[in-house]
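Task: encode each sequence below as structure tokens.

Item 1
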Amino acid sequence: MGSEGERYRIDTGRQILPIPPEVYSGTILYDAKDPDATYPPIRPLRPPAGAPNVLIVLLDDVGFGASSAFGGPVDTPTAERLAGGGLKYTRFHTTALCSPTRAALLTGRNHHRVGMGGITELATSSPGYSSVRPDTCAPLAEILTLNGYATAHVGKCHEVPIWETSPAGPFERWPSPGNGFEYFYGFVGGETDQWYPTLHEGTRRVEPWGTPEEGYHLTEDLAARAIAWVRQQKALTPDKPFFLYFAPGATHAPHHVPREWADRYRGLFDDGWDALRERIFERQKQLGVIPENAELTRRHEVIPAWEDMDEALLPVLRRQMENYAGFLAHTDHQVGRVVDAIEELGSLDDTLVYYIIGDNGASAEGTLQGTFNELINLNGMPEIETPEFLTSQLDKLGGPESSPHYAVGWAHAMDTPYQWTKQIASHWGGTRNGTIVHWPHGFAAHGELRHQFHHVIDIVPTVLEAAHLPAPSMVKGVRQDPFDGVDMTYTFDDAEAPDRHVTQYFEMFGNRGIYHKGWCAVTKHRTPWQTVGAAGVAFDDDVWELYDCTSDWTQSDDLSKEHPDRLHELQRLFLIEATRNNVLPLDDRVFERVLPGISGKPRLVPGNRQVLLPGMGGLLEMHIVNWRNRSWSLTAQVDIPSDLAAGASGVILSLGGHAGGWAFYLKEGRVTFCYNLFGIHRTHIRGDQPVPPGTRQLRIEFAYDGGGLGKGGDVTLLVDGATVGSGRIERTEPLGFGYEYTDVGRDSQSTVTPDYPRGDNAFNGRIHWVQIDVGDDDHGHLVDPTDVVRVAVYRQ
């Protein structure tokens, strides 16, 4: 790490970023040929000598008990290999949810302190929940870039405020440039389709290189991009260390994986999740990742026993777990490709690797029976999927036509030996994630366990210490807040070192807890698979539990009645930490936080009208005026060429994709509206005759039934104000279609309607404009072109 004198000189020179340039103070001579007219050479910015490369791998939605490195049933040889040459941390913690964990990891501050008390879609105007990282908390990538590192983020970014995610920006909080990374390739949002992802390179939308039929899969693509970046960086600037943040969307739902990977696990889970928990628990003891005296926590009564599941559903449930296991194994293999590439460059021994196996516990958002389309439960309509339907789709599960998620019982098993799952920040099942650190040139220990208590906020201080860099006092003119995390290097060569991270609060959706010097007080407030509606319990009525975590590793023995005074002390400490970190006011709302009018977050599209123009693309549903659960209309002014003998065809506007959405288009000249209800049922409503050539106004009107969310409505199709077709949609999706692109003039690769093959649906006429009106009573009337918002039109 260098001598104290070296550290002192480094600190004083690098606490203010960007590093102030040296100013020449010598004599200015007239002629550059004069022997005395010399200046110091320009020196490229580099970190201090000995600064390592840094690779941080963050998987998504993997429980403590999933990976074979921590006793789980899924083969993860890359994790085991790195652990064999490094250290396994058995008491490492996350925040219980993705956006908050990622914000905490990248800043070294508690998630509410950087505005990320929930996912970005549920942001509110409260400081702890705004999703807006304050400039006083510069992220690690920015600090390292300003100290001379090459930096890249490949994979998932779920930290951009949703009103800043459109092609219009602003981009201050995108990975590049806002979060300090020099390069970004991946997706912005909570999830994406692994077969048909929504991708960006920098801030520019890009298309996947191929289709599933051609061999495309997102995780494989991300690994290839990471490898290409690190090879180029080392080839061009071999003396410059890199920081690569590799964050695949796996294994977040949808659980998409090539069939051959799922087939590797065929039959291994036939005896169900209760038996699987027992096997994992014994294996964990054998590996030493839990102590011999640890107790396996009970399965709560709200999680069904395997023997109580419908016999007809068992083949579906088994395949869900086989599919998930294949997904995790496939992901670990892609991580291995990246590690292998770094090793081939001769750089692995000089690379500080963090392999964090999950950004929270396993996800229980897939309902008690699992789902063929995870958007169904997220929209609060799980009753749509009957056992008969799930059985009929069994052969498609995991493939491009599905968007699957496994049952709650499997998630609970993947969090063995702990209680509960993702979202439940009170218990270790939601927050304890197996983590591996590998750095051969940084410490001598290998193949050992570390049991010190740590949290994801500890990574930034550790990386800076390893790189001989100080915590900056000022970044780009803004004074910086101190880090909340502690440096973990004290554990690298000392397995018995006493804990230095002694206090940590946890909170998510009202589920909350506090850890302090071996004790923890916790309370579960709401259940994760209840995605819509209030928790139904007042915060003051929550029941708190108390655990001695020095002797009770798994939170299995509640001591609240034996030690009421200690419980009260910890409850007060939680309130102190909550106040200090912007946790208050507690917020257990879900649907209300989606709505800008209630939550206080900005609307990207204000008002009840929006005009879209040809050439516009790369839009998500959140970039479109809010038309849900209300009446709306869409009007398009188009030119139909006279030489189209078979009639005009192609998509005018679509929202969503194969898992749910709608499309407005022409097929064989007839105007058509297709509503895709979760991929289960598609309703087609068509005009009764082809649209004549010339300049035409095509219009759809949807008259919502009202009376709540997700109701149906009547559809009317019009050409130049005259009705040409009508029909009815019996149910609608109340909340969202996911992260599919919206384009004017074509459908996405993940198509809404089977009327067109994927990628073969561009409109063959000319679109002047498309206008969406919500709450519009002007049914059946032409839209005056002068009433359309006038902006520059890109001509097709």
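Item 2
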Amino acid sequence: MTQQVSRPPMTEDGQWWRSAVIYQIYPRSFNDSNGDGLGDLPGILGRLDYLSDLGVDALWLSPFYLSPQHDAGYDVSDYRAVDPRFGTLADFDRMRARMAELGMRLIVDLVPNHTSSEHEWFRAAVAAGPGSPERERYMFRDGRGEHGELPPNNWRSVFGGEAWTRLPDGQWYLHLFDSTQPDLNWENPEVWEEFRSVLRFWLDRGADGFRVDVAHGLVKAEGLPDWDHQVHMVEGEHDAREHDAPEHDVPETPLSTGSPYFDQDGVHEVYRDWHRVLAEYEGDRMMVAEAWVEPAHRLAMYVRSDEMHQAFNFDFLVAGWDWGRLSRAIENSLREAAGVGAPTTWVLSNHDTVRHVSRFGLTDPIAYPKGIDADGEQPDHEQGLARGRAAALVELALPGSAYLYQGDELGLPDHTRLPAELRQDPAFARTGGEEIGRDGCRVPLPWAAGEPGHGFGADPWLPQPEIFAELAADRQVGVPGSTHTMYRTALRVRRELGLGRGTFAWHASHDAATGLLSFVNTTADGVRVLVAANLGGAPAPLPVGEPLVLSREDAVQDGALRPERAAWWRLG
């Protein structure tokens, strides 16, 4: 049944997503309304006023669909049902209606590369046997070797181990992630039609857009060839990582050039098709791609005018606390997005990465750890928080759309001392603990120090670190100098001045020698805002004047910006 949802006012040209601040909610860790240890949709409803007061424009909800939860909901068994752990469709409708009253948009997570092994399609495929139409919905293949005992090719799962699992009847199925997440066959018209239907189901219930999981997946190279698992750059192409020393840690995510199962040109036909579906609806609906793709011009292909509307800017996320990498990420991202008429997105943390406050507290300023545990280097929280707050002011002042991960506004770190027996990320199990996994960034939020689960609810599904007590929302909301107050102030100023729709130019003080990263955002009304972050080791002189926003109350002293601090000034 179509739900009649009043929509928030659109921006002048109707494209609200070009400058929106979007807040990611990981439902199982946001707020627990019934005491079962998991967050839920009623819990989100109960905190919508908090999010409205913070100043965000839209919410992105990670999966809340029916799922056996082998990968925290990214293994979907029914795309049209709310998992009872999280509530009901009626709860979804109440939450969406209240969001509309508060003027907030809603982005729903979509998982099109794979389903759960408990999806009715996969169960039917297993039962039907080799050669059946049911198996054509997935990537089933005969094995190699004299008796088919070897996998069809040498592909590896992103979560570790082989990317193929054999059934008792002898056939193998592909799963680029966990064995409970079989890959769909996007050469099958039934798959295309099913996802058109899923899109319309949630659009009819008031979704304003979709975050597309593994958007660079879906289509595989013809013939499913073996791969040496190395990224081969095409002549003339380069990425920001070429400037880094070999020992620097970078994502071990298969990137664009050379991978036979990511970033194949055929994915773009899927998104052109979905673009046409979204165009059937009023209200300027949108899509944002989760696509770990390099180089930058390959990512820009996903946001051409007839495809996606946004793509996550992971170059910015992995740049770390490093002047050169941040500068290149900003410059390259703005250039490539402008070339296809798309806005740039900016993001520092999400549910798949170590929180930036913890990353910035490590010895290596551009480290991209695949999880942190008690045996590894422990982040310096005070250093990480200072840098994290400064980086947030850079993110929120750049033209385009900004994404916040739940708890960013509280300065939350990862939980780095989770016992192995409590970890639930399949990557931890599939790699035998070699990859720590993502549980540390998914720990339930602290709302009220001293209450059960620090206000999240009794018996949280993952334990919270001790530091969450002092970082709880009730210790920060309305408190001068708190991380929450800094974010709320920055979001208010960003909205009032229209920084998301401004234009970018480096400032004369932008200098590698001093480590000062500085630029000017000129708004549509002609307001010029100087933004500076000191990534160097000494105070950096800047124009005299009253700052609009400070990352710390002590950021500016004697006319200079202190190290690990940032500020915004309004220029004459």
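Check on item 2: The mean pLDDT is 92. The radius of gyration is 23 Å.
End of task.
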